[in-house]
Each structure stands twice: as C-alpha cells, then as structure tokens.
Specification:
- The chain is built from three helices and nine strands.
- The protein is α+β, with helices and mostly antiparallel strands and 178 residues long.
- It is elongated, with a radius of gyration of 20 Å.
Length: 178
C-alpha cells in the first residue's frame, strides 16, 4: 500500500497513512474519484490482519463534487444521507459501493499475487528508524515513501524531505546519511 498510494498535491487533499504495528492494522485516508461523473468520495480505509484473516472497513465517508455556480466544493457526509427519501443519495451510496468494491478487489489481487516480504526489523520500524541491513520494504514501513529515488544498476539512493539519504545495494540498505 505504501508503494502504490498516491498523494494529492493540495494540502486539503493530503492523504494520511498510519500503521499500528501492535494491532497489525493500518489506516489510510484517501479519495476515490469516478472519472465518468467527477464525483469524489473521501474515506478512512482500515485494514487489519488477525490470524490470517483480513478485515477491511471504510468509514468517515464523504461525497464531494464541485458546484457549477461558483466552483465551491459540495460535501455530504454519508451518515446524513437519506437514500429512502432522496434518489440522488441512493445513487451516491451505489456509486461509492462500486468504487470501494474495485479498490478492495485490486488490493486483494495485489496481496495474492505478490508474496509478503519478510520483516525482521520490527523494533526499528516501530521506532521510525532505518538501519543497515534493512530491506526496501522495511525502509518504506519505517520512513514511508521517499521524496526522490535515483537508480543505477543494482544501487539506489532514496532521499527524504528531512534530507535523510538511504543507500541500497541489491535492495538492502548499505549506508545512510542523516
């Protein structure tokens, strides 16, 4: 998820990503957009793994669309929808359900087709530290996505906003500069 998520450019649309290592759960706030209707749905996406069972929950769902009149953003929280009284509200629910189903389907396909990485540095990851010998996946879990990546053969250099540089060879951290 860390590798594939995309952050919006505006401050208002920044995605959040939190990992609770003890609960084996992550929370991702993101926006799903229907390209045909230009509707946007913002939600908090929670994924938890317990005893090889994946639990996925979408909450805090909000419908968003630009109004044609003066370029304002219309927002409507799902808990305030009245689908039995307003047909448009039922459309919002159905549209979100379809988008959410596709998101979950893509996520589960990625899980089943990509082998899970071996994680051996849980203590460092929980403490948001990177150390020599960590894999790229462990670095992503500890620090998140880098601001930039430079590749040359089997070597990579990741730079983070904090001007921290992490150097990889064959996908393993060989050195770092803080």
């Amino acid at each position: 998820m860390i590798e594939n998520r995309e952050l919006e450019n505006t401050e208002e649309d920044k995605s959040t990503f939190e990992i609770d290592y003890d609960k084996k759960q992550y929370l991702l706030e993101f926006t799903q957009t229907n390209s045909q209707s230009a509707s946007r749905y913002r939600c908090l996406f929670s994924v938890k793994v317990t005893d090889n069972i994946i639990t996925i929950l979408a909450s805090n769902i909000t419908y968003e669309a630009e109004t044609n009149v003066i370029k304002l953003m219309k927002r409507l929280a799902f808990e305030k929808l009245q689908p039995e009284k307003k047909p448009k509200h039922k459309e919002y629910l159905n549209e979100f359900a379809k988008l959410h189903k596709e998101t979950v389907k893509r996520m589960l396909e990625a899980i089943t087709t990509n082998p899970a990485p071996t994680i051996t540095h849980w203590t460092e990851i929980k403490n948001k530290e990177v150390v020599k010998g960590m894999s790229k996946q462990e670095c992503l879990l500890a620090f998140g996505k880098p601001a930039s990546v430079q590749k040359q053969g089997n070597k990579e250099e990741w730079m983070y906003d904090s001007y921290t540089y992490v150097f990889f060879e064959n996908e393993i951290i060989t050195s770092l500069i803080k």
